[in-house]
Structure prediction request, 257 residues.
Amino acid sequence: MAVAIFVVSHWVAAVFFQSFFLHRHGAHRMFTMSKPWERLFHLGTFVAMGASYLDPRGYAIIHRLHHAYSDTVRDPHSPHHHPNVWAMMWHTRDEYCRYAHRGEQPEARFDGDIPSWPWLDRIGQRWATRIAWLGVYTTFYMVFATSWWQLVFLPTHMVMGPIHGAIVNWCGHRYGYRNFATADRSRNTLLWDLLMGGELFQNNHHRHPNRANFAARTFEIDPIYPVMRLLSWIGVISWRASADGAAVRSDNAQRAA
Ligand SMILES: [Zn+2]
Ligand SMILES: [Zn+2]
Prediction:
């Protein structure tokens, strides 16, 4: 039971921080927050993503490239230019490393205005740190696993981020329905995306990249959007004007009143 709770909690926490902090805040700048809050969510991202922690700048650059060149040969992770999901993810890793590790500079429009905590970002990406996380996960299993077969879930914790990336990037541009005739091949894979925190509404998101709510139709549910509205309501985040939508405008109006 403890192992099941650990696997599910790690999955949910990693999805939340990847979507809320790296994607919606870091790459798209949908909202702002004070420095202490930003540090707290940055630290939360480090803990939640653990062994597969991603540097916000490396993530933001390849994500902005994805939006600019979606499903063309210059897209860092289009499923339409790779024979299988493994090849796509290897190419994504390569593209990420160019900006996160090798000091390559992208065009200016893809860089800047990204949360940065140099010390944490450096530590978080070291192999020694990733191996230390393996020690943490292994210790948990040693203490709480009630049968040896439960160890099959242990590797999942080491590659939680890449698993999520593979599901979103592969399925979100291959399977599902389209609400909008975008120039790319993005799709909405699920009606209620509780699994990936709204990230599988790729077609909606490519049509309105800065819109805070990834759901666009009445039956679609993006579970992270209500969390963002709550954080806005209690004053933790402030919407940017580009995060369009009536909800955003009403939150800001209430705060100003
Ligand atoms: Zn996409
Ligand atoms: Zn995006």
